Amino acid sequence: MKVPDTFLWGGATASFQVEGGYQEGGRGLSTHDFETDGSVDHPRRTTYILPDGTTGGVRSSFFMPEDLPDGARPYLCEDCYYPSHQAVDFYHHWKEDIQLMAGMGFNTYRFSICWSRIFPTGDEETPNEAGLKFYDDIVRELEKYHMEPLITIHHDELPVYLAETYDGWSSRHTIDCYIKYCKVLFDHYRGRCRYWLTFNEINAVRGFAACGTHKCDNQTHYQAVHNMFLASALAVKMGHEIMPGSMFGAMYASSALYPATCRPEDMFRHMQQRRETTFFIDVMARGYYPSYSKNLLKRRGVTLSTEPEDARILKEGTLDFISFSYYRSNTVSTETRINVIGGDPNPYLPSTPWGWPVDPLGLRYVLNEYYDRYQKPLFVVENGLGAIDKIEEDGSIQDDYRIQYLRDHLREMMNAMNEDGVECLGYTMWGPMDLVSLTTGEMKKRYGFIYVDMDDKGRGTLARRKKKSYDWMKEVIATGGESLWK
After folding, report:
1. Active-site residues: which are they?
2. What are phi and psi of 464, to 5 degrees?
3. Residue 279 belongs to a domain with what CATH number?
4. Cβ–Cβ under 8 Å, residues 13 and 428
5. What is the C-alpha separation between 156 and 251, in angstroms, rounded?
6. Which of the four, 254, 265, 366, 427, has the lowest number of CB atoms within 10 Å?
7. Cα separation, 107 vs 480, whole angstroms
8. Tens digit of pLDDT for each residue in 306-346?
9. Tens digits of residue pLDDT in 63-83
10. 425 lies in which domain range?
């Protein structure tokens, strides 16, 4: 029971959760720079100047777009802590971090490029050379260790100027800015980077990044999504022309979804919910809006504004592979509020300390479902366990719970490949080193094989330390997965 020799093993991060250096190297402000820290009991906030001129904080518009009033603009308050400004300082530790990843046997590293580090406002005609050099150095270091870059072009964020001036992805102008940004990347890194993701969790991009200062209602949101579909398709076509042999995916936030009962009504609701979630990849993988989308958009009160060439653009820029995150599963019934992500808890599953259901078999389920649906290679680009890690008196970190979580999920991935015939290109665990949590802004919710000495307020030495799972994963990779059955 092994994976092919060509299988890509690695880790995944996002720029705003690891990089820091938010005012260094000519970087402009990005939409995630306004999100404060938080906790399970006190979710992180985005700080805004409200239309009446007062300041306030609402729950992060990334997750709760209905909380963002029309005309609200983000601002940085003096007494707030913004985790992305320092993150875990990959900006100054990238060489050490890549060396540690290489020491585990990684042959790939998924990272995102910060758009505002390349084009500080997004509207410039020429790129910021210091930003390009930073990622040049990273790619060069990966080449040194024979690690394949897997680059996310757009990871939930965009330059603030585009969000405020053009209302983000709800404007077609942002498509033009994105294509200009992509062309710079493709010209600059041609022949060095084969694997690209046009968008991260495109079914979850909401709020300020998607709708700018407009309230992100269904109409504005789905119009923004349509524009992202077009931007992705244009980028894929251009990427294939500039970089022959390159492969493009777009990352999708997935979960296994089960009907709560076998009642026909629950089964039908399950079908509707599954269409809500797979709609995004259906369009990007097939190159057209599926037949059910007319009813889906009608139920949400959406009338898309399109141009005559849009259908051709979508058809000419379909994805080469399907990549997705997998952390959990959910159930759905007639009582479930239909949404693009999520559902109701599954009473048969244990949960993490943050309430996320743990369902390893669900990974095998979605691998089979997506391969059946699209008949394209798959790539598991996020999967991992956020947990509270303790440093023992001897300095070790005995994260056996993480080892068990990963063992169970990796076994199911390999079962899908070896027993079910699913074609899977690789697996990048989230994240190889501890990083700032997207959902809560915390550091105590740790994911990595590598411990970073920093607390929830950014205090600490930032020193890196291997956990027990580091050597365990090293053996998994060295044996092609065979050690998972020891």
Report:
1. 201, 382
2. -100, 145
3. 3.20.20.80
4. no
5. 11
6. 265
7. 12
8. 999 999 999 999 999 999 999 999 999 999 876 667 788 88
9. 444 556 778 888 898 888 999
10. 8-31+84-485
